[in-house]
Amino acid sequence: MSHPGATASDRHKVVIIGSGFGGLNAAQALKRTDVDIKLIARTTHHLFQPLLYQVATGIISEGEIAPPTRLILRKQRNAQVLLGDVTHVNLEKKTVESVLLGHTYSTPYDTLILAAGAGQSYFGNDHFAEWAPGMKTIDDALELRGRILGAFEQAERSSDPERRKKLLTFVVVGAGPTGVEMAGQIQELADQTLKGSFRHIDPTEAHVILLDAAPAVLPPMGEKLGLKAKERLEKMGVEIQLNAMVTDVDRNGITVKDSDGTLRRIESACKVWSAGVQASPLGKDLAAQSETEIDRAGRVIVNPDLSIPGHPNVFVVGDMAFVPGVPGMAQGAIQGGKYVAAIVKNEAAARAHGTKPKPRVPFKYFDKGSMATVSKWNAVAKVGKLEFGGFIAWLAWLGLHLIYLVGFKTKIATLLSWAVTFLSRQRGQLTITEQQAYARIRIEELQEIAASVQESEKAAS
Ligand SMILES: Cc1cc2nc3c(=O)[nH]c(=O)nc-3n(C[C@H](O)[C@H](O)[C@H](O)COP(=O)(O)OP(=O)(O)OC[C@H]3O[C@@H](n4cnc5c(N)ncnc54)[C@H](O)[C@@H]3O)c2cc1C
């Protein structure tokens, strides 16, 4: 649709924050719309988060789930991809501030789509992150791969049985889909891929613990599927501890409070955090400048058309938004991104024809179901009222993930990696580097050094 006489500078400016499911789908759905799109994200890639656990456990490479956004949108002439960390949205001036390597950029918008997702929540205990990384980014997944494989390496060199036990105990906190997938894969990595490759330790003696403060595994998927997943994990050797709340995490393990109030300790060198999410702080930024409200998880409570109160051209989609009945899942973000793009498209067409746009209809989520893999050949799935588990669910999981992976090359590469792992027990991505495994600790050490230098300079002046 062409706007007669429109130039690049007076074209309607759409700024999208985030290149995840919500942001990317919004941008792609505006391909043939006469608008100027600037997609700003803090990473150069679009990340397929549901497969991060496979990067962490060496099944696939990071490139397979993180294609460059720039290349995905290469042929979309109305879209420009910009790298930057968005720090502020100025609702009055209608600008977005983003930072790249210390430089701040201001980008004006007519329509703004916020799709900045969510980060890990440690429920107010952010210091847990140092010893129990979450699983939200490629950095997280590679760091975890380094820590998991690094623990086996250290155990091989240890002559102290207590230390070996600690190194071979892996604790996954949070029994949602990510926790279940992670625990199952660490167990399979130990029992199948690493078996027989060490001389001093037996990797199959690794002890994987999946724990949660809730009384069930996979609570959002219902009791029946939760039990199925639990039984399968236990059969594989994973120990499930429910009603167990983590009260502390340190280098050597975690402290847990059971439902009867008893405190106990689990000695473990490698901990994974997959409990709880906190929406992007940009929601709070919006709330500080408007009548927008956020919920406890920091999600923006949006209007029925996903806009924010008093700002009909500022939309929030995906994990950043709270919409009743819409789960924090890929489909919620994809459908939200496409829905907002349809509004933008409709209103651009009306502007071009000098007519009134069709009234906005409220966003309606179509529930396509949810699934989680438990182990090789075994998954659980819930589609409408239908609940099933086992091999059929696993096949459905495989097919659906292939459909939603972005790009033909990515799909082929992933399929090949899966063939290697599922048919042979091998894994093609077991490379680790010291930087990956210890970057977070080193960065924190550097920050502490910098802070103490600043303090002593202050004291001296
Ligand atoms: C480990 C894991 C497993 C999952 N498994 C499943 C699953 O099996 N099925 C399912 O349906 N869902 C799953 N999910 C949830 C699903 O991935 C999310 O619901 C979905 O990614 C949300 O999309 P989004 O666009 O809102 O946010 P995201 O996909 O998180 O994208 C956010 C984007 O915003 C960018 N960004 C964030 N802050 C800023 C900033 N300040 N400045 C610039 N850019 C910023 C990020 O770099 C990213 O590009 C999983 C999530 C995780 C973490």
From TrEMBL:
Localization annotation: Cell inner membrane
TM region(s), chain numbering: 388-408
Cofactor: FAD
SUPFAM superfamilies according to UniProt: FAD/NAD(P)-binding domain (SSF51905)
Protein topology in the membrane: Single-pass membrane protein
Domain FAD/NAD(P)-binding stretches: 13-337
Keywords of the record: Cell inner membrane, Cell membrane, FAD, Flavoprotein, Membrane, NAD, Oxidoreductase, Transmembrane, Transmembrane helix
Reaction catalysis annotation: a menaquinone + NADH + H(+) = a menaquinol + NAD(+); a quinone + NADH + H(+) = a quinol + NAD(+)
Record has Glycoprotein as a keyword: no
InterPro entries linked: FAD/NAD-bd_sf (IPR036188), FAD/NAD-binding_dom (IPR023753), NDH-2 (IPR045024)
GO cellular component, one term: plasma membrane
EC number: 1.6.5.9
Enzyme class, broadest EC rank: oxidoreductase
Gene Ontology terms for molecular function: NADH dehydrogenase (quinone) (non-electrogenic) activity
The keyword Cell inner membrane belongs to this UniProt entry's keyword annotation: yes
Record-stated family: Belongs to the NADH dehydrogenase family.
Name of this protein: NADH:ubiquinone reductase (non-electrogenic)
Organism lineage: Bacteria, Bacillati, Actinomycetota, Actinomycetes, Mycobacteriales
